[in-house]
Write a structure and sequence with these properties.
Protein name: Sec14 cytosolic factor-like
Organism: Salvia divinorum (Maria pastora)
Largest sheet: 5 strands, mixed
Number of helices: 10
Number of strands: 5
Radius of gyration: 18 Å
Pfam family, one: CRAL_TRIO
Shape: globular
Length: 250
């Protein structure tokens, strides 16, 4: 950290305390994510941090969402956790055509948290550092109107923005059908500028090569230009220390 960041972190800790909360147990790197997400506005970053702590305590009281609470979503076999990119970022792939819009919004929100927590925890090496980021690959191949879930996609991105600040490194959209362009424009209205800047719609060979470089051939599935096989989210095994550490994830 540079001197300005050290000063901002110290000011944020005091601001959080004034709001009746605490930053105890959270390192500088974690707090900087909240500061970056709010353009180093101390009061806004402190408010975001406190809101996140309150949300986490009420929505994820166990520190993680167990498989048993999201079994219906897991059974769709639509999300894959592939391992780490060359930069050490966990890579998650989604086959969107397997998605069935949920009739239970609460369970879907729990599934989003389960997915994000497990993805981030998969990059831990013994303990959380606080600056871990993920790379997402959303495959829209074979997408049909029955799979379109505007509310679900907005929920996923808004959870990233509100409760997992600066956790997204890149998001690649593959094989986007023409009819989905209008849907994506609608979804984009709900995303912050900083989030949109991290999203790449892969539409040419140069962008596909960028995807391969970012994800890495070792973990990118073969059908996207890599050498890996798909690994279902529920089949990916975290080590025990990583599982226990999920209570600090944001």
């Amino acid at each position: 950290m540079n001197q300005n960041e050290e000063l901002a972190v110290a000011q944020m800790r005091r601001a959080v305390h004034k709001l009746g909360s605490s930053t105890e147990g959270f390192g500088e790197i974690t707090l900087i994510r909240f500061l970056v997400a709010r353009s180093f506005d101390i009061d806004k970053a402190a408010k975001m941090f406190v809101q996140w702590r309150n949300w986490r305590a009420s929505f994820v009281p166990l520190g993680h969402i167990p498989d048993s609470q999201v079994a219906g979503e897991l059974q769709q076999n639509k999300i894959f956790l592939q391992g780490l990119s060359p930069r050490g970022n966990p890579v998650v792939a989604v086959k969107v055509h397997r998605h069935v819009p949920s009739k239970d919004p609460l369970q879907f929100k729990k599934y989003v948290v389960h997915l994000l927590d497990k993805t981030i925890a998969s990059s831990f090496r013994g303990k959380e550092i606080g600056n871990e980021k993920l790379v997402a690959v959303l495959d829209l191949q074979k997408l049909a109107y029955k799979n379109i879930d505007i509310r679900g996609m907005i929920t996923g991105f808004q959870f990233l923005q509100d409760y997992y600040p600066e956790r997204l490194s890149k998001c690649f959209l593959l094989n986007m059908p023409g009819f989905f362009v209008r849907v994506w424009r609608l979804i984009s209205r709900f995303l912050e500028k900083v989030t949109l800047e991290k999203i790449v719609i892969v539409s040419n060979e140069e962008e596909r090569r960028a995807l391969i470089r970012e994800v890495g051939v070792a973990v990118l599935p073969e059908e996207y230009g890599g050498r890996a096989r798909f690994i279902l989210l529920q089949d990916f095994q975290l080590d025990k220390p990583s599982e226990e550490k999920t209570l600090l994830i944001s």
